[in-house]
Amino acid sequence: MYVSDCVSVNERGHLTIGNYDTCELAKKFGTPLYAFDENEIRKNLREFKKSIDDEYAGNGLVVYASKAFCCKEMVRICNEEGTGIDVVSGGELYTAMSVDFPAENIVFHGNNKTYDELVMAVDYGVGRIIVDNLTELETLDKIAKEKGKTMGVMLRIKPGIDAHTHSFIKTGQIDSKFGFALETGEAMEGIKAALAMENINLRGLHCHIGSQIFDLDPFELAATVMLDLFKQVKDETGTELGELNLGGGFGIKYLKSDRPRPYSDYMRKVSAAVNSYSAELGLKTPFILIEPGRSVVGAAGLTLYTVGCVKDIPDVRTYVSVDGGMCDNPRYALYQSSYEVICANKASEKRDWTVTVAGKCCESGDLIQEWTRIQPVEPGDILAVLSTGAYNYSMASNYNRIPRLPVVFVKNGTAREVIKRETYAQLCECDV
Ligand code: LLP
Q1: 415 - beta bridge partners?
Q2: pTM for the whole thing?
Q3: How far apart are CA 181 and CA 350, in angstroms?
Q4: Which residue has the least CA distance to atom 9 on ligand 1?
Q5: 49-58 — which CB contacts under 8 Å span 24+ positions?
Q6: I need a surface site. Which of 151, 350, 368, 402 has the fewest CB within 10 A?
Q7: Backbone angles phi, psi at 318, to 5 degrees
Q8: Nearest CA to ligand 1 atom 24
Q9: Rounded mean pLDDT of 323-342?
């Protein structure tokens, strides 16, 4: 009925998430508020894990891209479900360290990791550092040598596939700040340098072709381009690399018209290509890593707001202003992202009113959705914006010194805060 499977309507005509009445959540925890269905998150992680078991005989690792949504409890859940996590900053790594996440199952990304971040990763013994460039490789080797350690490394390669064009193309992605380019020979140079370093253990190669992708073909093409490189490395250096990290990017449903394919379809198609093409090239099927972010948490979360004022501008449009905005969801302002908006306390009524949902920030572009159809609402009503689990909390800001929202996880009839609402005092904590 809705874009998110964990959302429904109860006998009171209220919207529910994980069978919990969202109006009760609003009452109990206040608004604005992020709410997630924990079972949905766990189900998604298990589905990715199962597809590695089914398609690669378990010879792989699901690594949750924590940039989509990161907090201690999320990282604990990944550990409980037996997945790894992908971190891209000292802050995300610190979060993982603070819950004793197994270092071996952490991959550390970033195109410009600082010296201190690399030291932190070496000290914790992060299993795979995804090295972006030669400077980073040399710095990491030096730090590892000083500390008497050998660090597991994968190199991030630009496979030259642009999955975001209408019909994807296989060149032209050389213009990216991330990774080693294939076309210029930079990738092979980096690989040979890494193989020659004493304190670097080159475990394999990584690629990531983009985000919110529905088409399966670019993923398949990226895998084969990477295997060609594995073969070239074997021919030129005699070393057969053991691991291939295929990144994340699987699309989710934001609007009813979105048609994401089940992850099992993705895994089946890509694994068939990986298994057969490896054999054709005379290579062993590598250990496979995947890095889903949005597809784990996106549709498992929603945001609840209270309507403050309704401003009807005749012949122009109607603004419905809510108590949050671009500070908790900057994605419409940044990418004109589509969302489904529902009045949580009138969920069984018809959505036949076209409005613009605006936030409370001092900025005209502070909009959550334009020209969207919702139930007729009035001040005090609760609005739910669906599928906001990914890249909302993690991209939130304190613009206008608005405190960050709490996050509630709903599970089997109970709701608990996993992130508390930020206070005004905390906003001033770093001020001198
Ligand atoms: N691995 C790497 C190396 C990545 O750069 C990303 C996302 C992922 C995995 C996870 O991709 P996902 O499965 O979530 O698509 N802020 C944007 C999304 C930026 C994605 C950045 N990288 C948004 O709100 O749509």
Answers
A1: 410
A2: 0.97
A3: 52
A4: 248
A5: 49/81, 49/82, 49/83, 51/263, 51/264, 51/266, 51/267, 51/268, 52/267, 52/288, 52/290, 54/264, 54/267, 55/267, 55/268, 55/271, 55/272, 56/271, 56/274, 56/275, 56/285, 56/288
A6: 350
A7: -110, 125
A8: 391
A9: 97
pLDDT at 172 over 60: no
Q: What are the tens digits of pLDDT across the range 342-380?
A: 999 999 999 999 999 999 999 999 999 999 999 999 999
Burial 195-225 (b: 16+ CB within 10 A, else e): eebebbebbbbbbbbbbbbbebebbbbbbbb
CA–CA gap between residue 144 and residue 332 (Å, rounded): 42
In this structure, which residue's CA is closest to atom 21 in ligand 1?
211
Instruction: Report which protein residue has its CA nearest ligand 1's atom 20.
Output: 211
Beta-carbon contacts of 167 under 8 Å, excluding residues fewer than 6 positions away, are: none
- Ligand 1 centroid, distance to 172 Cα (angstroms): 20
Rounded Cα distance, 267 and 286, in Å: 15
Q: What is the Cα–Cα distance from 61 to 365, expressed in whole angstroms?
A: 41
Neighbours of 149 (CB within 10 A): 13
Report which ligand 1 atom has the smallest distance to the Cα of 391.
24
What b/e string do you get for 333-361 counting C-beta neighbours within 10 Å, with b at 16 or more?
Answer: beeebbbbbbbbbbbeeebebebbbbbbb
Q: Is the pLDDT of residue 181 over 70?
A: yes
208 CB within 6 A, ligand 1: yes
Active site residue 362: yes
**Cβ(45)–Cβ(105) below 8 Å:** no
Rounded distance from Cα 381 to ligand 1 centre (Å): 33
Q: Closest residue (by CA) to atom 23 of ligand 1?
A: 391
Annotated catalytic residue within 23, 71, 309, 362: 362
Q: Which of 238, 228, 158, 148 is nearest to 192 (CA)?
A: 238
Condensed to tens digits (0 to 9), the pLDDT of residues 256-306 reads 999 888 889 999 999 999 999 999 999 999 999 999 999 999 999 999 999
Ligand 1 neighbourhood includes 305 CB (under 6 angstroms): no
* Ligand 1 mutation pick, 67, 113, 334, max ligand atoms within 8 A of CB: 67
